[in-house]
Structures are given as structure tokens and as C-alpha cells.
Amino acid sequence: MSYWKKRFEALEAASNKYGIETYRKIEPAFDSAFRQIESEITLWYERLAKNNGVTMQEARQWLNANELKEFQWDVQEYIKYGRENAINQQWIKELENASAKYHISRLEALKVRTQQAVEVAFGNELDEVDAMVKKIFTNDYYHSIYEMQKGFNIGWEIGQIDERKLEKFISKPWATDGKHFSERIWNSRIQLVSELHNQLTRTCILGKPPDDAIKAISKKFNTSKNQAGRLVMTEQAYFHSVAQQEAFKELDVEEFEVVATLDNLTSEICQEMDGKHFPMKDYEPGVTAPPFHPWCRSVTVPYFDDDFDVGERTARGADGETYYVPSDMKYSEWKEQYVDSPVVVDQTQKITKKKDSNAYSVDRKLVNSKEYHDKFESLTSHKSTNESVYQEAMKMLEHRDGTELEDIVVFDSRTGNIVVKNTLSAREGQTGLTYEQYETYKKASGKKVLLHNHPNGGRLSFTDLKTLFVNADIEASIAVGHNGMVHIVSNPDRTIDIEKLYESLYNEYKEIYANSEIAKIYALDDLYDLKIFDYESR
User: Fold this and answer.
1) At 307, is the pLDDT very low, low, confident or very high (cuts 50, 70, 90)?
2) The sheet that has 299-303: what strands, in order across it?
3) 486 versus 413: which is more confidently predicted?
4) Residues 90-127 pLDDT 10s
5) In sequence order, which residues have a C-beta less than 8 Å from that of residue 361 and are 6 or more positions away?
6) 3-state SS class at 289
7) CA distances from residue 47 to 43, 54, 58, 210 in whole angstroms, order as listed
8) Nearest-angstrom CA–CA distance, 400 and 483
């Protein structure tokens, strides 16, 4: 275990360092914003102050023509900056409204100018955190797999993380209050803007000099910077932990162990969790896995009951070859070979021209094109599986061209190897596995991907969806249409009894429409609209 502890602690340290670097990019933006606000307040007082103070009556006076023109020019610059840098759209709308006003008070103008500095700072924080979590998740996912494969001296192709999968992980709130990091950032922004405006108003009411306002605002900015640091390091720890979780799943790790950084800064909960191990099904950041608290430095490592002999493990790739990863192999070399290397594309399979055509004929021009092949890229998270699905899709489309008959293929979701296939179905619009084929399917371990053809080109039917929901080992179900459409359904919410739900929806529509086929169509529409699974058509 000392090997894994050493490697994964080093990985966490690198991730933690990147989080600190991210905060160091954010911190100057807050300092710059404060200096700009300090300058705006000082200039404002220099123009208006009598006896080192500005009364509320003076602050509420309208800007004169020249001042209004100058203000509107500034606001237009703010709007331009906001559009170019994707700043909060609500703030841009407020700026547009302010720009259109014929009368605006001196205090309102100051509040707009100072709020702009705040918006820029928080917009920068959101951009930096968003970029950080994407990089942390991607890098730590690959690095975790690299360390495992290097430790066992084995390797196989690893699917690239596509944008769709990445966004799914990043957009999911994880804390107990259900808030996403973007919400936390904007809530901090709202709080600081409110305190800034209140402080400016309070200073004018009391007729105090600008030094008091600047001092109070400085304290608020320091608080916001501390909150930003806390958020950055907590999100860094979370996405590092989730990346490890996904990497362990990819490698079929069955248990994980919590390893705390033990020193005089270690929290009580991390000391308590140190050395505990859990099944992977119980991996839950914040509960059984880090982060257990803000600024958490604990890490997870793979846990094995027996002692594995490093260097004696072998694994086979999708092409049946055995790969060995030398202990001195660098990460860049590993990534190029097992992540970035392209799958050899074999497009020799073509749909041949038939003598007659009908409503179920395959769209040869589309299906034989590179455009059609490209539809299978990033269909699943494994390149070899995507290519296998494409090759089998071409075979079944050639086989069933011009008919209402369907074929079905079951793949190993990681390797793309065929588990079982049935090309002998003789019932129109239906397909499935024979008893013997089903037994073969049940004996095969690991996650599966289903593929079958739809002669009418439509999306997956209720029967297709039910098959996905009731079989926990099916990762995704794909239907290829004779019209060139590719439909994929994945990530079903298996806490839902889909058969019971469909029956309820069907009965509701059956009471409205006498035609049972119409009721079935509307009930299926509702299943898709309820978002209880991920669906994409290409």
C-alpha cells in the first residue's frame, strides 16, 4: 500500500498546487477592483466634497450635461467589456437601462462605476474556477489511471473524456446545500455589491469623509478574497476526488482507502477517516471520500485485500494484444499511446446498391459517408467501442436494407468486443436474444452497450427503454436508423419503475384518446420529456 500512498499523495499535492495557482490568479483581480473603487470614490469626493464630506442632498443631485455624457460613455465601455468577456447578463441589462436614462444622480453614477469593478472581479473568479475544475478533473482522471497502469506494468486504451461527459460532472452540485460553485460565486457577488452600495449611502447620510468608506470597503474585499480562496481549494479537492472515483471505476477497483496528510494541521475528521476503506459503491465525496471539509488535503488510494505483484499483471486491449507499461514510462508517453492515439478506421464496409428501393431502404449516400462515421465519435467514452459499434451498425444496415427486420449486438462497453449478437430474427419490428444467447450475455462481466437497427429511423421504443432500465449492466442503448439517424439513450434513473410510469401515462391518454396507438405515442413522448435518462440523436 505504501506505493499507492506515495503516488496518489504526490498526485493530490500537484492538484492542490494548481488550486493555489488558480487562487493567485483570482486574488489580483480583487485587489485591482478595490484600487479602482478607491480611485472612483476619491475622485467623486474631490469633485463634490465641501469640508471633506458630501451630504445626501448633494449626492442625490442630477449629473449635469457634461457629467451625464461622460457617465454614458463609461457605461458603453462597461457594456462592451461585458459582452466581450461574458460578464453577468443581468448586470449588462442594468447598464443598458442606466445608459438610456436622461437623469441619474451622482450617487447612482458612483454606485454603477464601483459595481462595474466588482462585476469584473467576480466574472474573472468564475472563469478561473470553471477552467480549473475542468483541468483538475481531466488531468487527475488520466493521471490516476496512469499511476495504476504503471504500478502494475499493464496498459490498455482509455477513452477520451468528451465535453458532454465533462459538463455533466462539472454542472452537478455536490455540497449539502445543493449549490453549484457558480451560485456560490454569484451569491458572494450580490453580498459584496449590496454592502458596497449600503456603505456609500451610509457615508453620505452621515456626511463622513471618504477614508471611512474606503476602509470599510477594504475589509469587505478582504472577506471576499478569503471566501474565494476557500471556494477554490474546496472545489479543487472535490473534483480531484471525483476524478479519482471515475478512474477507479474505469479500472474496476473494488475498494478504496482514505489517506490523510498527517501533521499538526490535520483535522479531527481526517484523522478519524485515515486508513478506513470502503467498497466503491459507497464512494461519496464529503461523506466517505474527500473533501471532508474546506481546505481538505486527504486523498483516496486503491485498496486491495491481497498483495499484488507489481509487474506480473497482464491485460488485453480491444485488439487482443497484451500491452506492458514500463515503470519508467513518462506520463506524456503513456497518454499519447493509450489516450490520444487514433483508432484505425476501417471504412471498407459499405452499403451496396440494391435493385429495388422502398420506405425501409438505407440512405446509402449518407451512411456510406465520412459524415455518418463521425456520428459515432464520442458516442461512448471509449474509442474502440465507438469504432466497433460503427462497424456492426454498417453490417446490420447492409443485412436489413429494405426490410422491417432488426439485428441486435451486445458489446463490452470498455473494449468494444462483441459479447453476443443475433442476426436471425424473423419478426418485423422486433429483435432480441435467444435463450442460449441470453445465458451468454448474463455470464459476461462488466458493463454492456446494446445496438440494434430501426428500419423506420425512429428513436428508441418503450421496450428498448425498459430493457435499459431493468438491466443494471447496460450502460447505453443505441439504435441506428435506415435513414442515417443514430439515437443513444444512457444514464437511466433506475430508482424509477419505468413500466409502472409508462402504464400510468398510457392510461391517462387512453381516457382522452380512443385510439390506443395515439395513447402509446404520447406516453412515450412524456417519458422522453421527463428527463429520467440522457437522450441524444445524431
Assistant:
1) low
2) 277-279, 255-259, 299-303
3) 486
4) 778 777 777 777 777 777 888 888 888 888 888 888 88
5) 354, 401, 402, 482
6) strand
7) 6, 10, 11, 12
8) 12
Biggest CA pair distance of the chain: 97
Q: What is the pTM of this model?
A: 0.64
CA–CA separation, 232 vs 224, rounded Å? 12
The number of beta carbons lying within 10 Å of the beta carbon of residue 81 is: 16
Q: How far is Cα 1 from Cα 6, in angstroms, rounded to an integer?
A: 9
Long-range contacts, stretch 86-89, CB < 8 angstroms, 24+ apart: 86/123, 86/127, 87/119, 87/120, 87/123, 88/119, 88/122, 88/123, 88/186, 88/189
Q: What is the pLDDT of residues 68-86, one digit of tens each?
A: 777 878 888 888 887 777 6
471 CB neighbour count, 10 Å cutoff: 16
Per-residue DSSP letter, 339: I
**Which residues, 6+ apart, have CB-to-CB distance to 158 below 8 Å?**
142, 145, 250, 338, 339, 382
> In terms of Cα–Cα distance, which of 192, 48, 33 is closest to 107?
48
Phi, psi of 225 (to 5 degrees): -65, -40
Cell of 127: 472563469
The bridge status of strand 418-422 relative to strand 408-412 is antiparallel
In this structure, which long-range contacts are made by residues 265-274, counting pairs with CB atoms below 8 Å and at least 24 apart in sequence? 266/297, 267/292, 267/293, 267/296, 269/293, 270/296, 270/297, 270/298, 273/298, 274/298
The Cα 286–Cα 258 span in angstroms is: 12
- Mean pLDDT across the chain: 83
Q: What are phi and psi of 453, to 5 degrees?
A: -100, 150
Q: Rounded to an integer, what distance in angstroms lies between the CA atom of residue 305 and that of residue 303?
A: 7
Q: Could you give the angle at the alpha carbon of 412 between the alpha carbons of 409 and 415, nearest 5°?
A: 120
Per mean pLDDT, which range of 302-311, 372-381, 409-418 is the poorest?
302-311
Q: In the 3-class helix/strand/coil scheme, how is 305-327 assigned residue by residue?
A: CCCCCCCCCCCECCCCCECCCCC
Whose cell is 454492456? That residue is 448
Kindly give the interhelix angle for 210-250 and 163-170, rounded to the nearest 10 degrees.
120
Q: What is the DSSP string of 468-488?
A: HHH-TTEEEEEEEETTS-EEE
- Per-residue pLDDT tens for 267-289? 999 999 998 999 999 999 989 99
| Bond before 291 cis per omega within 30 degrees | yes
